[in-house]
Amino acid sequence: MTSRIRTSLLRHADQADGAVPVVRIGWADVPGRLRVALFLGVAGAVLLVAGPAIGLVEDGPAAGFGALPVLAALAVVPPLLAIGFVVAKAPATGAAVLVGSAMLAPGRALVDAQFAVDPLLTSRPEILVPTVLAPLSAAPGLWLLLAGHGAMALAGLLAVGRAGAIPGTPYASEFDDHSADRSTKAQGTSLVLALIAALLAAVGLLLAPFRSDNAFVLASSVIDAPPLARFGVLLLAGAAAAGAVFGAGSARPSVARGVVLGVTAAVAGVTVPQLAAGTAVDHLHLAPGPVIALSALVALTVAVWLLNRQENPAEDRATELDTGRLHLIAGILGLASAAAALAAATSVQLVVTGGLDRPVAYSSRLFVPAAIVVLALAVPLLFARAAAATRPAFAVAVIAIPLVAASSSDAVFTAISASDAVSAGPGAWFGGIAAVLAVAAACVAALAGVVERDDVDLTERQANLTLAAPLAAAALFAIGAFGLPVLKAPGFVAPGIWSHFRPASWGLLLGVVVVLAIIAVAAFSRPPRGGALLAGAAALVAVHALEFALTSDRAEGATAGPGTWLSLACVAALLVAALIAAIARPAVKTRR
Questions:
Q1: Which residues does the chain have with pLDDT short of 50?
Q2: Which of 138, 261, 319, 394 has the fewest CB atoms within 10 Å distance of its CB?
């Protein structure tokens, strides 16, 4: 009881001064589950250091540089930060650090598991630099390293949410007291910055870790990486992006600060050794990928911490972002993106010299339906009465343009790499511009949604169980729609997510991630907004489904592949779910 009284007095004292409420919780108030998580975090760090120290391969070659001190420092950073926040009486922030760093543990484990399959393909000069092509086998240190990743993942899982705290206790009160929530302005700004940083971080992690002039050290991007490491890098990039957005968009200041800091610390554990190898190992050179990823997340971390230092939330809420202005900006960006997409579809994609025939850019034909969809949804955003209802569908459907741009760029890159007489034409540049404008429009529309939700009480909203069946079907269909080829023909190899990863695969990966995320969000959304989200997802998948009809001429004897039929099935399931959500009765109450 004494600790609760102390917590209450501290909160009211902060509110009297007009500052953001800050709860200082002593060690005695830390939940037992969080204490176990801290122990696992320390144990995981020890294992992450012990593995490389003992050796990951039997009789393996030496590392390219003395990396063990660097690896040890990077391993202990997340648990030490968490313990430091607990000692500083901010255990919720410490728990969030563990959560953020744990999000990358599965991906890091998959990347390290490549040592068990073929160490020569690992591209890990901080661990070993081969000098011959003799086979190598895994050593006991590898299993310690993988156990360390498992311990870190479990620590984050135990620290999620209230970390087992009993409702009414000081630790749980930090999550239950909505007076301590971040302001809409801080939360919305952080979310937009997080979307940009997440995109940069994901791209940076997927690029080559360094440039190599050493035939024994492969500088592989995600496209050239061996299968196990490829899936690990994809999981790393996705987890880093998701962690950044989840953390920055949280209404809890402690969660926002801690999760973003934890994600940044984990990404540093991946990228800092790559940067060190690029500078310290002979015949290796720095590459932009690790620099982009780490810089983006460091900048986001600084921004989130600064945005949480609000002097007076009441004044900040008086200057909230205007949804009408955000709708207008999103609409203008959408119109500009649609115009650029139409220009890409009607312009020359490839410039050919030397008397060669110009290849037909079949994929660029998809820009037309994508532009029509975006145009149809962008125009209502310019009018106040229709903007709010249209915005959710627009925010999702506008992703169709980056999806098409990735497919179109695949043909451009393939042609350029095949001949020095081929170069990118104006259509390729218009496609890139359209994709950038589309992403910007989606970010602004998402920010408008964050601002709008601040006026709605969503604390009692539960999942809409009537949507369970169509949403589950749509999710399964979406995985097949984007993961399987839409076109089959003799000798034709389609880009994919699971195999034959090419530039077009980025669009497929983006499409399936967006659709699955919308399915998850729509289940808990207000019925009208959820229906609009699902309608936008249906439009996105419909553009993908048109690929066979518009590009079948590129291969002789082409027939519709399973991706086409599953795309149509996904569109149908999404439309059924959207109709059910649209006619459902709202069950939320406004705060004001």
A1: 1-23, 311-320, 457-460, 587-592
A2: 319
Residue 218: the pLDDT is 80
Distance CA 212, CA 130 (A): 13
Residue type, 487: L
pLDDT of 142: 92
Q: What is the DSSP letter of 345?
A: H
Structure-token pair, residue 161? 């949410």
What's the pLDDT score for residue 176? 61
Residues linked to residue 456 through DSSP beta bridges, in sequence order: 590
Distance CA 304, CA 261 (A): 9
Residue whose entry in the numeric block shows the structure tokens 């969503």: 458
Residues forming a β-bridge with 352: 422
Q: How many CB atoms lie within 10 A of CB 128?
A: 23
User: In which residue are the tokens 């034709």 written?
Assistant: 492
* Ramachandran category for residue 349: left, alpha or beta (phi over 0 → left; psi -120 to 50 → alpha): alpha
pLDDT given for residue 18 in this prediction? 40
What tokens were used for 25?
């919780």
Residue 494, classified by CB atoms within 10 Å of its CB into exposed (0-12), middle (13-18) or buried (19+), is buried
CA–CA separation, 503 vs 413, rounded Å? Answer: 8
Q: How far apart are CA 388 and CA 224, in angstroms?
A: 44
Q: What distance in Å separates the CA atoms of residue 592 and residue 588, rounded to the nearest whole number?
A: 12
Q: What is the pLDDT of residue 573?
A: 93
Q: Look at the alpha carbons of 513, 516, 366, 433 in this order and tell me if their dihedral is positive or negative.
A: negative
Rounded to a whole number, what is the distance in angstroms from the first to the last CA of the chain? 33
Asked if residues 120 and 45 have their Cβ atoms less than 8 Å apart, the reply is: no
> Do 352 and 422 meet the contact criterion of CB atoms below 8 Å apart?
yes
- One-letter identity of residue 102: A
Q: Which are the contacts of 466, defined by CB distance < 8 A and separation ≥ 6? A: 580, 584
Long-range pairs for 548-552: beta carbons < 8 A, 24 or more residues apart = 548/486, 548/487, 550/362, 550/365, 550/366, 550/369, 551/362, 551/363, 551/365, 551/366, 551/487, 552/487
Q: Residue 41, Cβ neighbours under 10 Å: how many?
A: 29
- Tell me the two tokens of residue 239: 């987890």
